[in-house]
Amino acid sequence: FHRTTPEAAVSIAHSDFVISTKYESTMLGHGVYFARSMEETEGKANADGAYICAEIEMGRVKEVGPGAERDSLRGTTHLWKDYDTVYYNHPNDSRDEFCVKSTDQILKWVMIVNQEYDGKVRNYRLDTEFDDTICQCI
């Protein structure tokens, strides 16, 4: 899962993901960042309003934990010659994070824009259950 602004989500939909390169936002080096769930993006992403659920080709994975090795990755690309993904194995499982080096590793994705940012949800009554879509669970 990747969290971003609705505007950035629209940009991604029309073009592609952009590799993060700002020193402050690249704890695991330059790349595209993902978490295991929507909830786990909380407190990581500096943006809100849209989520992208993606299928990722991990390739060769470098696992790091907290400490000097992880800290040495910020703002760098030096692991990309040997690895495709950096996996931050946080002591708290809900804080795990992945950084992929290439947008080519993002195989397919679906985008979710929060309702308050997308009037079409209400305009087209997509926030309403219709008689023929109500679950008839037995």
From TrEMBL:
This is Poly [ADP-ribose] polymerase. It comes from Didymodactylos carnosus.
